[in-house]
Amino acid sequence: MQHYVRPEGTPPVNGYSHAVSFEGRMVAVSGQVPLDAEGGLVGAGDARAQVRQVFENLVTALAAAGAGARDIVKLTVYLTDLADLPVFREVRDEYIAPDRPPASSLVQVSGLVDPAFRVEVEALAVV
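Below the sequence we write its predicted structure tokens.
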């Protein structure tokens, strides 16, 4: 896996790579939401708790496929409120190695499948 964090001529980044190249078996992880293993909402109104639960779910799903957070090559992030972005970045950085940031997209959405959800994250990984 090769991370191209900021190739010449590209704008500055904050926790992601402009491009990532790789070889291996691709693992696609569906959008993860802030639900616990029993399906209960975690962190009603609490962006930090919701982002942490989303990453815990993401890591669990990756592990089932024989992968881990270090294997992520692409994240797609959906936030209902861009004011949650600093919190998202803080929690993300607890899970994603700063020397191997994945390519990333961030989308502000008007809502997610449950109005209580503040964040959803999907990922592509390679093993």
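The first strand starts at residue 2 and ends at 4.
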